[in-house]
Amino acid sequence: MAFSEDSGLHLAQIVDNINSGIWEYNINTRVIKWSVGFCIILGYEADEIECSYHLFFEQLLYHEDKLVFLNALNDQAPAKPIQIRLLTKSSGYHWFESTIKKHDDETGQVIYGSIININQYKQAELQCTHNDLLHAQTISIAKLGSWEVDAVTLDLTMSKQIYDIYELQNEIPLTLEEAISFFEPPYRDQIQNAVNNALEFCQPYDLELLFRTAKNNVIWVRAKGVPILNDYGKCITVRGIFQDIDNNKRKGLSLESSLNLLTDQNRRLQNFAYIVSHNLRSHTGNLQFMVNLYNETELIADRDEIFAHIKSISASLNATIENLNEIVKIQTEITNERSIIDFETLFVNIQSAIKSNIEARNAYIEYDFSQCPQINYIPAYMESILQNLLTNALKYSHPDREPVIKCYTLKERNHIYLIFEDNGIGIDLERYGNKIFGMYKTFHQNPDAKGIGLFITRNQVEALGGTIKVESAVNIGTKFTIRLT
Amino acid sequence: MIVEKYVVNTCIIDNNPVYVYGFKKIINLKGLSNHITHFSNGNEAIMHLKNPVNANNLPDVIFLDISMPVMDGWEFMKEYAEIKSQLGKKISIYMISSSIDASDIDRAKKIPDVIDYIFKPVDVNKLKEIFNSLRGISPAVS
C-alpha cells in the first residue's frame, strides 16, 4: 500500500496545484471540506480561511447567487455546472464555475464538485452581450437594416430591422420582386434598375425612395447597395442597407420648398425694386430735364409749353405710384380671407362693369364654367384676374375682325384651371417670351398699353401658388392658361 | 460763335414724348443742330435707314433709348449691325437711358457700334461736347 500512499499524496499535490478547487458538502451533517486549491484560487493561503459552510455561504458567495447555489443543491436531476460569484481575497467578486455531483454514503447525502475561475471568460461574455445589445439598439434607433441578394439564385435575406421597417409581423422570406413591390409605383423602376445594374455591371447605388409599408404607411427610405465581387470580378452578392429616413427627408423637402418660395419671393422683390427705381427715375429725370429747360429759355410760349409737360409728368408720376401701390396691395391682401366664388356670377358682373368697352368693339364673349363652377379664392384677386384678362383681350383685339373671347374652367386631377382665349392680334412669343408678364413691358404701339395688367395678374396668381402660361400666334390670337390651385 | 462746317444730322429714337420734346428743344435752344429726325421705336428707325430714298440724308448721330415697344434699343443695335455695311456712312450712336443698372451699362459698352452710354436726363454740357466732337472740334475750344 506504500505505492498507494505515495501516489495518493502525489495526486493531492497535483490537485492542489492545477488552479482549481475541489469541495465536498454533506447536507445532513452540514460539514464542508475543500482542497488547498480552493483557497488558492480565491487568493488565500492554504489555512488562511476557515473551512465552514457558514463562511462559504454568508461571506464568500455573492448574495444574488445564493438561490442559484441552493437550487443546484436541491435539484434531483443530474445537475449542470453552475456559475456563481465568490469573494476573492484582494480583487472583489470573481466568476467561478463548479460542477455538482451527488452521492449517498452512510452519513447522508454528499454533494461534491470541482471549481474553477472563469472570470475572464465571463467578463468577455458579458461585454459581448452588452455590445450586442448596444448594436441592436443603435440600428433600431437608426431604423437601419441590412440585406443581401445572391447574384445567382437571387435569394434575398433581410435583417429583422428591415421587417420592422416593412411593418411585417413575421419574418417570412420575401422574393426580390416582392420586396421591390413595396416601393411606390413611380420609384419601382428606379430601384429595380439599380439592383440590376449592381448585379450585372457591379455598380453600387444609394437612393432615396418612397415606400409603402405593409400597414399602408408611406415613408421615405434610403436604399443603398454595394456589389461584392469574386476573384474574377463578377458580382456574387449585392449587400446593402435599408433605412427609414422619413423624418429627415420630409424636413429636408419642406426646407427645400420654403427655400424655393423664398428665392422666388426674393427674385420678385428684387425685380420690384428695380422696377420702382427704373420707373420713378424716368419720371424724375424728365422732370429735372424740363426744369432745366425752363431756365434755359425766356420765351413765354416755350415756358408755357414746358409747364404743360411738367403737368403731364406729374400725372404719369402719380399713375406710376398708384400702380406700385396696387402691386404692394397684392402682398398685403394675400392674408385676406378666401371665400367661395361663383365664376359665372363674378364674370357676368365684370362684363356689365365694362359693358361700354365690350359694345364699342362689338365683342362676342362666351363662357362655360360647368367643369368647375366655383372656387375658394381671395375675391379681390379673382375679380382682378378676370377683369385684367378680359380687358386685355379687348384691348388687343384684331382691327380686321370682331373679337371673340372665350373663358372657361377645367378640372384636372387636383388642379383647377382658368382658360382665356381670344382671336386678337397675338404676340410673337419667340421674341418676347415671358416678358409679357413683366412690368411696363409693352409690345404694340397701343396708346392704352400701360404694361401693368398682366404683371399684376401674374403676381396675384403666383401669390396663391398658381401659375400662368401663355400661348399665342401673331394675327391669330392668344390663349392664357392659369392654374389656380 | 462757332462757324459750322456742316449741319449735324441728328436722329433720336425714343418713345417718351416728353423726353423727345425736351431733347429737341435743348438742341434748338443751344443751336447744336437744326436737323432732327425722330422715331418712336427701333423698327421705324431701321425702316428709315434701309430706305434708299434716304440714302443721301442719313443721320450723323443717333441718340438711342433702350426701353421701347415693338423694337427696343438692344434689338435695334442687332439689326443695325446687319445693315450698317450697306449704309455707306459712319453713324455715331449713343445709348441714352434712365436705367442705372450695371448690367445694362456693361451690355451697352460691349456693343462695338455704341460710342457711349449716357444717363437720362442728358446734361447740356455733355450734349455740347458730343456735337463739338462730331464737328471735329476738340472739347477744349468750347
Protein architecture, described:
By secondary structure, chain A is α+β, with helices and mostly antiparallel strands. Chain A folds into four domains: 13-119, PAS domain (Beta-Lactamase, 2-Layer Sandwich), CATH 3.30.450.20; 142-244, PAS domain (Beta-Lactamase, 2-Layer Sandwich), CATH 3.30.450; 250-331, no CATH class; 334-483, Heat Shock Protein 90. Helix content of chain A is 46%, strand content 25%. Chain A contains 15 helices and 18 strands. Chain A has helices at residues 2-16, 36-41, 53-60, 66-74, 119-141, 160-166, 176-180, 185-201, 246-296, 300-333, 343-353, 355-361, 379-395, 429-432, 453-463, and strands at residues 20-26, 31-34, 82-87, 93-98, 101-105, 108-117, 144-150, 156-158, 205-212, 218-229, 235-244, 339-342, 364-368, 374-377, 404-412, 415-422, 467-473, 477-483. In chain A, the strands form four sheets. In chain A, strands 1, 2, 3, 4, 5 and 6 form a six-stranded antiparallel sheet that branches. In chain A, helix 9 runs antiparallel to helix 10 and helix 10 (300-333) runs parallel beside helix 15 (453-463). Chain A is elongated, with a radius of gyration of 46 Å. The N and C termini of chain A lie far apart (110 Å). The relative contact order of chain A is 0.05. With 142 residues, chain B is α/β, with parallel strands linked by helices. Chain B has one domain (9-117): Response regulator (Rossmann fold, 3-Layer(aba) Sandwich). Chain B is built from five helices and five strands; from the N terminus they run E-H-E-H-E-H-E-H-E-H. A five-stranded parallel sheet of chain B has the order 2-1-3-4-5. In chain B, helix 1 (17-29) links the parallel strand 1 (9-13) and strand 2 (35-39). Chain B is globular, with a radius of gyration of 15 Å.
